[in-house]
Amino acid sequence: MDLVATRFAPSPTGPLHIGGIRTALFNWLFSKNNKGKFYLRIEDTDKDRSKDIYKSQIIQSLKWIGIQHDDKEYIQSEKIVKHKEIANELLKKGFAYKCYCTENEIAEQKAKAKKMGTPFIYNRKCRDSKNLKITENINPVIRFKSKISGNAIVKDLVQGEINISNSTIEDFIILRKDGTPTYQLSAVVDDHLMNISHIIRGDDHKINTFKQKQIYEAMKWKIPEFAHIPLIHSSDGKKLSKRDSTSNLSEYIKIGILPEALRNYLLRLGWSHKDKEIFSLEESIKYFNLSGVGKSPSKLDKVRILSINEHYIKNMKEKDLYKNFKEYCQIHKKKIDGNLENKIMNSMYFLKNKAKCLEDIYKNAEYIIIKELNINPGDHALIDDNSKKIIKDFNEKIKESKKFDKGFLEKCINDLIEKHKTNLKGVGQPLRIMLTGSKFGPGIYDIILSLGKEEVEKRLNKLS
Questions:
Q1: CA-CA distance, 205 to 416, in Å (whole number)?
Q2: C-beta pairs of 440-448 under 8 Å, 24+ apart in sequence
């Protein structure tokens, strides 16, 4: 059996789309499941729109989510000479022809098709060179001579057998007027040069597959197998747009979604294995196959992403979780004093409670991180005269005692409950407000122990 080789081939003309990441993931998992190779090809032949900043973002995004390509990145623009060589070879063999139609002629054809409500297909005016009048000072494009009669069949590994009439495939351009190759040609030549065995991409590429298959046949190259995966739709069922914030990876990094959680979510978005929901990296590689990919579009669900992320946060070792938390803080320039790191790491077991993302953990830990505590105006009003007495009594008790553990604190608070004829909320709420600035937050014992005796006294002493 030949080596399985897949590729992900984004254009660096904008940030990597969440749908692109899923496509890369499926390619990567398929190749790893088959002990093959996965390559990253940067399709940068659009020089006006391609930017190095987007190229770097693509590479970093894949690295962040855990997708590692084999060998160095394949840069498409470095192979343009080869692409043009193949275009001229197709021309010599009679599989392509020069088209001298002007822009106005093409525009008229498009307008006519639009008026008739039919897709534009070039009328093949220049296909037959006999009696062809060549307009002077026109640089021709080179068009591929597509089949006119019969049907074309692609045995798709996801969609099944797809059969279309060859008459629906236009004579597409393979070399522009300026001599640069088009996507249809470059993609085929690159896939051939890279020995790609399986092309896994979105089902919006189906018509491209029929065009590209004809180039393979004309060159007598081995045709790879194709798999077209359904697109991702937005929550309202529309095709996911790059302008939709939920389609951008940066939005998930911003709120602190763990890479493992997003990878797990994207794996399950349009693919299934029995009724299993959570997959480790090893399980993802072991179980992934194209037969598990559905034929219908999947809806991007941010609520589900947060739910899976919460599962990962809850089940991750505190040490590993703190490492992710620290990276999150560094990315967002949320500075944490070095002397607080151990406090936060040791408190991670309760700071992660009910946290759906790293942003939630930061909010839970903010009372430890902040240097100057400001009490919420609405909560400040809850510190009445009786609350002030409770706070002062508590402060006196911890000052007098050398002990500072949960057992001591429980006795201390129970004594105050009895003395002031109140309940746990009556004692805990004013203490929480004074120690965190809010009536909401972690349990009172966790707050006190995480701050330490010295910091607790310092904060309670500010009671005016």
A1: 71
A2: 441/364, 441/367, 442/350, 442/351, 442/353, 442/364, 443/350, 444/413, 445/406, 445/409, 445/410, 446/347, 446/350, 447/367, 448/409
d(CA 280, CA 460): 46
Q: Which residues contact 84 (CB under 8 A, 6 or more apart)?
A: 175, 179, 181
Total Cβ atoms within 10 A of residue 291: 8
Residues 6+ apart with CB under 8 A from 247: 17, 18, 19, 232, 234, 240, 241, 300
Residues 6+ apart with CB under 8 A from 373: 367, 435, 436, 437, 459, 462
Q: What is the pLDDT of residues 328-345, one digit of tens each?
A: 999 888 888 888 999 999
Q: Which residues contact 181 (CB under 8 A, 6 or more apart)?
A: 45, 80, 83, 84, 87, 174, 175, 189
Q: Measured between alpha carbons, how far is 244 from 246 in angstroms, rounded to an integer? A: 5
pLDDT in tens, 401-410: 888 999 999 9
Residue with structure tokens 């998992």? 29
273 Cβ contact partners less than 8 Å away, ≥ 6 residues apart: 279, 287, 288, 292
Cβ–Cβ < 8 Å for 339, 451: no
pLDDT tens column, 119-145: 888 999 899 877 677 777 788 999 999
How do residues 148-196 score in pLDDT, each as one tens digit? 999 999 999 999 999 999 999 999 999 999 999 999 999 999 999 999 9
Structure tokens at 331: 């990315």
Three-state SS string over 214-227 comes to: HHHHHHCCCCCEEE
Tell me the residue length of the chain: 464
